[in-house]
Amino acid sequence: MSEHKHHLKTADDPSFQLPASLAALAVPLAAVGGAMLIIGFLIGAVAGPGDAAESWRFTMSAYLVAFTFCFSISLGCLFFVLIQHLCRAGWSVVIRRVAEIFMIAIPALALLFIPILLASWSPSGVLYPWSDAGFGDSHGIPASTWEEKLRYLNSGWFSVRSAIYLVLLSGLAIYYFRLSRLQDETGELTLTERMQARSGPAVMIFSLVTTFAAFDWLMSLAPMWYSTMFGVYIFAGSMLAAHSAVTVATYLLQSRGAIRDEVTIEHYHDLGKFLFGFVTFWTYIAFSQFMLIWYANIPEETEWFYTRMQGPWHSISYLMIFFHWLFPFLGLLSRHVRRRPKLVFAWSIYLLVVHFFDLYWIVMPQAGPTLGGASGILVSLLLTLGMFGLYIGGMLWFTRCKQVKILAVRDPRLPESLAFENI
């Protein structure tokens, strides 16, 4: 990738447009992704692991993993954009638009949440056990305790909360994306000032929404388990995924001739530092959550980890220590690695994969004690690849149709970003 060139191109420079080779992938990716989602659901319904109820529980759980994987990337990118404005950061301007394009997928992803919302109304607890009226009795939970749980965990209140989360997150994404694009046309400094002024309250809204969404959508899969650190755990994974996705997208754009002069080794170096930092932060939160629960040894808390220490999940739990922490920690530790765009790109792909397995490890043990055999693995692959294809294809289509520039061409801090150097 190119070294520093401290000159400003015109706002309509072709290198600021989505490359035609990537734009051409939009419809095929979305079409194939949608087809794979449908096929995944059909196979899950007809030939999924176990009886009909078990098959649907496994299929919906795999769909939840696929949705959460894509949503976590956009969620992390939304926070990335907010925090850049809050800190008045200059270094990140040349890559911020890439994060904004991931961020603006949140409203579309809200539509893909509908199957999960419908599953929450299933009287048989097809995804969320608390929607099964007989769950408390069948698991020996005292009636008074279960009644208190159901005051919060019920389909109606769950739906209202989910709608609030998605509306607030979509609103933030649309607001910041709209003003950022408007600045491409007008170059008004006041737009930057408005985004900065609202970034503080926006971060607070984001933090509350992310925490409670993590509780509702993921933690409530085990309705009697609780961890006040779980929201931070999901946030850490989302930020790691967001920085990885921005790195991968930026590298692919540059490989097709876009923003080659604007994004330099210095920016990859900073992205590599963030990857290293969030690998460490994720590990700290994951270990802290486990250690405190292990030390307290309260049955309601330990059962979640106990479930993940049985069968094939036992091996996966230990493998996560090495593949999600030790290997990337050592791999990104060196400054030499972080200043090699190809290596930062490769580690970003790796981290996206292990982030997916982290989410799989969070969700799927609640669907059953096994990996679901060949049919279960096939369903998981189809739903994940289908969701991801639809996700990326949709963003490429939106960027092409709306003629979104992939660089914030009139941001007042663009010259600072172009001249950025690590000390």
Q: How would you describe what is shown here?
A:
The protein has 423 residues and is mainly alpha-helical. It has one domain. Helix content is 73%, strand content 0%. The protein is built from 18 helices and no strands. It has helices at 20-23, 26-47, 52-86, 93-103, 106-112, 114-119, 135-138, 143-152, 155-186, 189-217, 230-255, 265-296, 299-307, 311-331, 335-338, 341-363, 373-401, 414-418. It is globular. The mean pLDDT is 94.
- Report the structural category: mainly alpha
Q: How many angstroms does the end-to-end distance come to?
A: 19 Å
Measured as a percent range, the helix fraction is: over 70%
Number of domains: 1
Unreliable spans: none
Question: What proportion strand?
Answer: under 5%
* Major beta-sheet overview: none
- The overall pLDDT, averaged over residues, is 94
Q: Gist?
A:
The chain is mainly alpha-helical. Helices cover 73% and strands 0% of the residues.
Keywords, separated by commas or semicolons:
18 helices, 423 residues, mainly alpha, 0% strand
Draw up the topology in text.
Blueprint: H1 20-23, H2 26-47, H3 52-86, H4 93-103, H5 106-112, H6 114-119, H7 135-138, H8 143-152, H9 155-186, H10 189-217, H11 230-255, H12 265-296, H13 299-307, H14 311-331, H15 335-338, H16 341-363, H17 373-401, H18 414-418
Helix pairs in contact: 2-3, 2-17, 3-4, 3-9, 3-10, 3-11, 3-16, 3-17, 4-9, 4-11, 9-10, 10-11, 11-12, 11-16, 12-14, 14-16
